[in-house]
Amino acid sequence: MATAQPITAKQVFTDLDHFVAFGMGSGLIRPAPGTWGTISGLLVFVLLVNYLSPVVAAAIMIVLTVYGTWCAHRSAIKMRVHDYGGIVIDEWVGIWITLAVVEPTALNLVVGFVLFRIFDIAKPWPIGWIDRHVSGGIGIMIDDMVAGIFSAAVLFFAVDLGWL
User: Fold this and answer.
1) 70 lies in which domain range?
2) Which of 6, 38, 53, 138 qualifies as a FRET site for 31, CA 20 to 30 Å off?
């Protein structure tokens, strides 16, 4: 795909694909839309796990992961760019994966957030390879999902070993 077409807040809030892909608009926040997207995804996680049963919360996250992949793909096509920085549904899913393995205490949320941002930004192997070689909605999502898995593993063992 070529250069991204400029996108406005009006487009994001009036197009369901953009609205979901942009994390209900959180991907419009500058600077660092990925960080803001992760924060908004973390807040959604906290709301889901604190106010819904674990089964319902997990079902919503799974459905939104699948639907978000579709929306990210369609949003990228509409903007004519593979992985526009404002598409942050992948950050939502990545932070959900990170936090799914521990109790949602304040310390675990903060450490999980930091770990996820480190893995998402640094993109160690295979995350960076996936980011460069997998396209479409799956390509947008999968590198952040793997970053979430790496972050979850580190967070889980830190908690399990009593470091947190």
Assistant:
1) 9-158
2) 138
Q: How many domains does the chain have?
A: 1
- What is the reported pLDDT for 5? 63
Alpha helices in the chain (DSSP H): 9-14, 16-21, 33-51, 54-79, 89-99, 106-122, 127-133, 136-160
Structural tokens at position 121: 């930004």
CB atoms within 10 A of CB 75: 29
Dist CA 89 CA 103 (whole Å): 23
What is the dihedral angle through the alpha carbons of 100, 146, 112, 43, rounded to the nearest 10 degrees?
-70
Tokens representing residue 94 in the block:
């990545």
Structure tokens at 163: 């470091």
